[in-house]
Amino acid sequence: MKINGNQITPGMVIQHDGGLWAAVKTNAVKPGKGGAFNQVELKNLIDGRKLNERFRADETVERVRLEQKDFQFLYAEGDDLVFMDTATYDQITIATDFIGERAAFLQDGMTVTVEMHEERPIGVKLPDHVVLEIVEADPVVKGQTAASSYKPAKLENGLRVMVPPFIGTGERIVVDTNEVTYLRRAD
């Protein structure tokens, strides 16, 4: 679908210079002299490169719609992760590097959303929050106030987060997968 350069908004995926790019930031500029343009910060969905580009109102770009499918995480196999399409039961393999450090949050049977373009995975969206158990935490130091002090804790998946002093080993906590931060105790 063709759109004008001034219609690009953050989050939109476009085809540009032979690749798929996501608009990160946009800024409509109307200089005193010359025509208006849209200053767009783009991020390549395949290799992560960034690019700043100007699009005039009369330029057209191809907008790409990504297909979003639910997949269930099955298991890790070497450097690959195996997922199953919840609708068709087809399995796909995605490299662990593609998801990055957030792959540590994957749990057996977890449902994730995979964005696909022409049957090729472009991105994987994990649930925003996961419940994990603390396997190692420093003991409480008497006299510390809970207001501003946090202590390091190791989670069952090997990641470390900062937790309030009242959280101890063996407790289950809710962790934000985007920021990798402690949110609250699990119910």
Automatic annotation (TrEMBL):
It comes from Chenggangzhangella methanolivorans. GO terms for biological process: peptide biosynthetic process. Keywords: Cytoplasm, Elongation factor, Protein biosynthesis. Involved in peptide bond synthesis. Stimulates efficient translation and peptide-bond synthesis on native or reconstituted 70S ribosomes in vitro. Probably functions indirectly by altering the affinity of the ribosome for aminoacyl-tRNA, thus increasing their reactivity as acceptors for peptidyl transferase. It is found in: Cytoplasm. GO terms for molecular function: translation elongation factor activity. It comes from the Bacteria. Gene3D superfamilies: 2.30.30.30, Nucleic acid-binding proteins. The keyword Protein biosynthesis applies. Residues 130-185 form the Elongation factor P C-terminal domain. Belongs to the elongation factor P family. Pathway: Protein biosynthesis; polypeptide chain elongation. The gene is efp. GO terms for cellular component: cytosol. Residues 68-122 form the Translation elongation factor P/YeiP central domain. PANTHER family: ELONGATION FACTOR P, TRANSLATION ELONGATION FACTOR KOW-LIKE DOMAIN-CONTAINING PROTEIN. InterPro entries: Elong-fact-P_C, NA-bd_OB-fold, Rib_uL2_dom2, Transl_elong_fac_P/YeiP, Transl_elong_KOW-like, Transl_elong_P/YeiP_cen, Transl_elong_P/YeiP_CS, Transl_elongation_fac_P. The keyword Nuclease does not apply. This is Elongation factor P.
